[in-house]
Amino acid sequence: MENKDTLVENAIGRMVPTVVNGKPEVPYQGVGKYRPEGRKFGPRISSCADFPADGNKLVSTLKQALIQSGLKDGMTISTHHHFRNGDLVAVKIFDIAAELGIKDLVWFPSASFECHAPLTKYLEDGTIHHIEGSMNGQLGKFTSAGKMKGVGVLRSHGGRYQAVQDGEVQIDIAVIAAPSADSFGNANGVEGLAACGLLGFALADSQYADKVIVVTDNLVPFPCVPWHIQGNYVDHVVEVEQVGIPEKIVSGTTEVTKSPDRLLLAELTAKFCEQAGIIRDGFSFQAGAGGTSLSIGIYFAEMLKAKGMKARFARGGSNKYLVEMLEAGLVEYILDGQTFDLEGVKSMRNNPNHVNTSPFTSYNYHGKGNFAQLLDVVILGATEVDVNFNANVVTHSDGALLHGIGGWQNCLFAKCTILPVPLFRDRIPVIREEVTTICGPGELIDVIVTERGIAINPLRTDLLEKVKGSDLPIKTIHELKEEAEKICGIPSKQIFDDEIVAVVKWVDGTIIDAIRKLRS
Amino acid sequence: MIATAGNNGEKDRSDCLVTIELAQSGGVRIEVKSKVKALFGEQIESLCHSVLAHFSIQHAILKIEDKGALPFVMAARLEAAIKQVVDSKLQYLPEMLPENSKPSLADQPRISRLYLPGNTPSMMLNAGIHKPNGVILDLEDSVAVHKKNEARLLVRNALRSHSFMSAERMVRINQLPMGLIDLDYVVPHHVNLILVPKCESAAQIHSINEKIKAIQKESGAKNPIWLMPIIESALGVVKSYEIAQADNVVALAIGLEDYTADLGVSRTNEGLESLFARSQVVNSSKAAGIQAIDSVFSDVGNNIALMENVKASKALGFEGMGCIHPRQIPIVHENFAPEEKEIALAKRIVTVYNIATEKGLGAVSLGTKMIDAPVVKRALRTIDQAIAFGRLDKNWSELESE
Questions:
Q1: pLDDT in the model for residue B351
Q2: Does the predicted interface ipTM exceed a cut of 0.90?
Q3: What gap in Å lies between CA A408 and CA B66, rounded to an integer?
């Protein structure tokens, strides 16, 4: 896309397109400024008379189900990342579409992983027109190189729900891969070989898509309980040999870091929370699944234990460390958005205080409130932060698109948002004059913790006051930037081509930034 | 002639591999492959030109395979490669940070010293943030024989241009005589302390002092350079007192891996096999009025055993220990630091002593015990350490008299 006439400057100073993939778009207007009006998107009216009287919606193959769902050129197909890097279903859908000669599909995943790299061939041959979701790893590189036919659209988990609810994205066929299901279409994530915990990312799709296909490798007799997905929304059920690779579903990220620098970062973050008075009886927190975040959770647990306190709730991504806290009585509830390991899955299955949530309850802009904003503190990552506290999570400093947004943007609405980041990675300064891509506005980002100092957003005079006189290494964000540049040198400004290869949506559906093609 | 320097392996980070080939004509051709090219490509090229010009190289093919090396690292790698193809006495010296020219004190605390392999830049970068009392840039065992030269240049550049924050900057040289060559690369660049491995006589220390004096005379460097001999053999243990008495020696360290090998026994966590040697080193150090520093604890995964080891070490009279992993530092600090009971006793001794001095009394007693000068000295030292570890307010005596 190269039509410069359609570019406007949005409220955070970025030049963004007003038309993307032929559809009009709204530029970012500021936090909480955009209020679309009218009624939410309504799915088609269905009649139960059109469905099998015995409730058996089994179809013999996924191909059959897709054909019966009316798969045709230009449709929007949604999938979900509950199986993370062990997903065996998404690529199959497009294998079938390619075999049927279908073109110009829009893939609308809740997230993509390295296992989806084979889809580049369908982006190349035109089976897939573009991706709306996340473009990780190989798919990100492909997009950054300007090879995708359409423009990629990056959304947060909450933004995905918002886009479905207000009709910005209309899903033609949702394919929900489920660890357990019955022939009526009830499905859950806690039973079966591919047990992944929950199916919250597919909730909106089940309710709003034109056609819904449930795919499982563990078909149980009716009723499949608990029903994370209700069969009443489901058109077809397909039984396949395997939906996911268990060891890749609950994989990798759930080990505490061994890096001494990251441990120090985690320790400093936990100390900050303690001294800022965030850790108190009945507080709530969310920490991600990365090694540093896990370690912060462990420090929280130690502090709570030492003080004889407990947290009221923690938001997952759950893992064995959070489950241990739940079982030790250090946290009363886990409100879980996804489950990162088998201990988490088991806990969700057995412990009534380990509660299944979805982007609707946690993140949705069109909800009448959401859980993320109730959190006392959220700990998130970033690839870059700038002197205005704006942060980037989708591109690297070399400009290449590599990650999705996940729930990151939505979590910024917590009462205190902390980003623990290294001051520099190899020679790349993480604290910059200006981030390559703005994913979150600085006004929502409160504290940057680096191994060499902590910067508090000047807007948070309350936090500055609380840690005054403490032995924490409090610095300004400019001091941190200068320290990084003293070590690494001052980086040159990136040069991109004009062509826009992807846009980053804010939680309300407006465009906060555009990602341009890498100059080769 | 082609030469290379540096590292570009799968696991290497913050380093680069430099390949240089001199040519007869065609000028300088630079080929940069770097993960930070988008941000620092121009600066990398300009550094290459500057180093080549410094050594008057006009025609060469230079290849840089970079994994995010900082400028002081890349400069060291370039110089190391160039010096294999050009015979030159010149040095390409990066900027000397003002904080790196600070001298250290003979008796400053050396409770923790973090070993850093002298040819591994990634481990140097964040060493200071873990707040060890000292960092040891190691040119000896952690550097392969064929990498000694490039390590010397890297260590030299790190001493000048990299901040280790508040840590004392130490270098472990190679065994003599090779270690004497190492001195040329570190003495003019404000190293604070030299560790002398496998030391077995005062004569070795004298030869090092002589060489240091000669280099300082030539370079004009004036800061004191302290010595910490490492006793690592049966003979070294026997000679420890004469070594401890030699000029500029501020501490004796013991190295148990080599010592147990010399004895032909296995090293155990309990350390009974080295009890004699450890006690002897402590005794020689105290007799000479210097610090006694214990060997490193090599099981980095077992911090509970480390804690017990530190406690035993402190009980024997050691005042510090080497660390081979940053996470050992807080454990070493916490367990060498004075305990509540020690601090309380020290406070009472100092208070009683102060009152007695004010009143002009000669002999002082606490309960039924006489307090003499060495007891007071030890109590004052305990108080200083307690303050340094944040276990006691520096205005404690005023606060408590209020």
A1: 87
A2: no
A3: 32
Contact list in B for residue A425 (CB cut-off 8 A) is 68
Of the candidates A261, A263, A426, which has its C-beta nearest B68's C-beta?
A426
> B114 CB contacts (<8 Å, ≥6 apart)?
B127, B130, B132, B134, B135, B136, B167, B323, B324, B326, B329
Pick B98-336's CATH classification: 2.60.200.30, 3.40.50.620, 3.20.20.60, 3.40.50.300.
3.20.20.60
Contact A264 B325 (CB under 8 A): no
Question: Which DSSP string do the residues of A414-468 spell out, in sequence order?
Answer: SSSEEEE--SEETTEESEESS-SS-SB-GGG--EEEETTEEEE-TT-HHHHHHTT
Q: Which of A263, A427, A491 is the closest to B327 by Cβ?
A: A263
Of A426, A451, A494, the CB nearest to B129: A451
- Looking from the CA of B102 toward its CB, the CA atoms found within 13 Å total 13
Per-run averaged pLDDT (10 residues), chain A, 520 residues: 72 97 96 95 95 97 98 98 95 98 98 96 97 94 96 97 97 98 97 94 97 98 97 98 89 71 94 96 88 88 96 91 95 94 92 95 95 96 96 91 94 97 95 96 98 97 95 96 96 91 98 93
CATH top class, domain B2-85:
alpha beta
| Topology alike, domains B2-85 and B98-336 | no
The stretch B106-113 carries a mean pLDDT of: 93
Contact B36 A426 (CB under 8 A): yes
Q: Where are the domains of chain B?
A: 2-85, 98-336, 340-401
Residue B385's pLDDT band (boundaries 50, 70, 90)?
Answer: confident
CATH of the structural domain A260-496, one choice from 3.40.50.2300, 3.40.630.30, 3.40.1190.20, 3.40.1080.10: 3.40.1080.10
Q: What is the CATH number of domain A56-250?
A: 3.40.1080.10
* Partner B contacted by A469 (CB < 8 A): no
Cβ <8 Å between A492 and B38 = yes
Q: Helix, strand, or coil here: A130?
A: strand
Residue B402, pLDDT score: 59
pLDDT digits (tens, 9 = 90+) for B324-347: 999 999 999 999 988 889 899 999
- Residue A473: predicted pLDDT: 96
**A449 DSSP β-pair partners:** A420, A454
Please tell me which of the candidates A263, A452, A494 has its beta carbon nearest to residue B38: A494
In this model, does residue B401 exceed pLDDT 80?
A: no
How would you classify residue A434: left for phi > 0, otherwise alpha for psi between -120 and 50, otherwise beta? beta
Q: Closest approach of chain A CAs to the CA of B281, in angstroms?
A: 32
Distance from CA of B357 to the nearest CA of A (A): 36
Convert the pLDDT of each residue in B41-80 to its tens digit: 999 999 999 999 999 999 999 999 999 999 999 999 999 9
What is the rounded distance in angstroms from the CA atom of residue A137 to the CA atom of residue A150? 18
* Whole-number average pLDDT of chain B: 94
Q: Do A427 and B42 touch (CB under 8 A)?
A: no
Do residues A406 and A361 touch, judged by C-beta distance below 8 A? no
A487 at interface of B, judged by CB pairs closer than 8 A: yes
User: Where do the structural domains in chain A lie, given as residue ranges?
Assistant: 56-250, 260-496
CA distance B41 to chain A (A): 8
Q: What's the one-letter identity of residue B92?
A: Y
Inter-chain residue contact A260 with B326, CB threshold 8 Å:
yes
Residue B371 scores a pLDDT above 90: no
Question: Cα–Cα distance between B156 and B145 in angstroms, integer?
Answer: 18
The answer to whether B100 and B159 are in contact (CB under 8 A) is yes
Write out the two tokens for B378. 């030890």
**Which residue shows structure tokens 């160039």?**
B82
Q: Which residues contact B243 (CB under 8 A, 6 or more apart)?
A: B199, B201, B202, B205, B229, B231, B236, B249, B252, B284
Q: Do domains A56-250 and A260-496 have the same CATH topology?
A: yes
